[in-house]
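Hi V.,

You were right to ask for the full record rather than a summary. Here it is.
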Amino acid sequence: MRIFCWKLKPVYFFPQLIFGLALIWASPSFAEKNDLLIPTRALKGHGDIIRSLAFSPDGKLLATGSYDKTVRIWHVKTGEAKFSFSHKNLVRAVAFSPDGQLVASGNYHKTADLWEVDTGKRKAVLGHSKLVRAVAFSPDGKTLASGSKDNTLRLWNIRTGRERKKLKGHLKSINAVAFSPKGKLLASGSTDHTVRLWDMETGKQVAVLKGHTALVSSVSFSPDGALLISGGTDKVIRIWDVKTFKEKGQLVGHTDAVHTAVFSPDGQTIVSGGADQAVRFWDVKTGNEKKALRNEHALYVAVVAFSPDGRLLATGGGDRTVKLYDVQQVLR
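Predicted structure:
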């Protein structure tokens, strides 16, 4: 089998065979783009690496979690901080509830905490036996999923704060979790190199997606729920068919670990960031790289997030700063 590609160019890999050949398509013209854009706004105030971001459902607020042991809530329009929630240890993950009234934070103090957005008060403390690296609300807002270094996923009743289920299957730390748009499936990515899918009605594991050769750091469903993407320290973003559980393709272009990868709200674009300090925009339909913003954050790009309307992209990383970009301007 022969493989054709341009060396060190971002590519989209389709493993289908055509006339006995496995083909890799690349776009050198896109790969050469490296525009330096001034962010629409830069949010400063954290004292250490920013590891997580989440927009409120109405897009007016942004939650950020940092290794400075705080979660901050920012007004997107003005860039002013509304609240700062203090923790006893590093904050690894944040998520807004679907109604925008709560923020969940996962931290190295072995807990997932729930905070009231209006008052800034802590509502609940949900415990694991080791540090918590991932949190996500179900689409109906009734359940919080948390993933931990204790190798378990836990499902929590938001109203009572009680544990509903404990999901076991991963052999090592869980680094990322995401609910499907309808809430029927939960995806998890782990240091054991696998992505696993769980049935939320039964709590049973329905698929183990293998392909990554290093830890999985990010998982994200497409808005229609048909696709799932996963990024890892093997530098690859893998695209999975949720119906068949088969790998459909790969986005290859990052020169170091991929820390984050998400779909745009319209499902047409994937944005990724990683240890190569680059933020990359990919066309979902063609697999071509639309844009590469390099040297966006010192040390690495840890996280990216779209506003609900898809107009803004927030990025965070090693320089302790959140950058907000106008997506249309970036892709112009």
